[in-house]
Design goal:
Length: about 60
């Protein structure tokens, strides 16, 4: 009877979790680009992206930035 309500709640929870995860990862990438010299900005963004998106060390490495 309330299946549609459950679908809406699950959708809102998924959206909130996705928004909360994507924001910090994007912010760390921008910070890495801005902090690096111009000729190394792409490399620093790649390293920050790899570190923030890895499953094992994501919290530790991203806290160092």
């Amino acid at each position: 009877m309330y299946g549609w309500l459950l679908q809406i709640v699950i959708t809102l929870i998924g959206f909130t979790i996705g928004f909360g995860i994507y924001g910090p990862v994007s912010l760390y990438g921008v910070m890495a680009i801005e902090a690096a010299p111009t000729h190394l900005s792409g490399t620093s963004h790649a390293i920050a992206s790899l570190a923030c998106n890895s499953k094992q060390n994501s919290v530790f490495v991203c806290e160092l930035y």
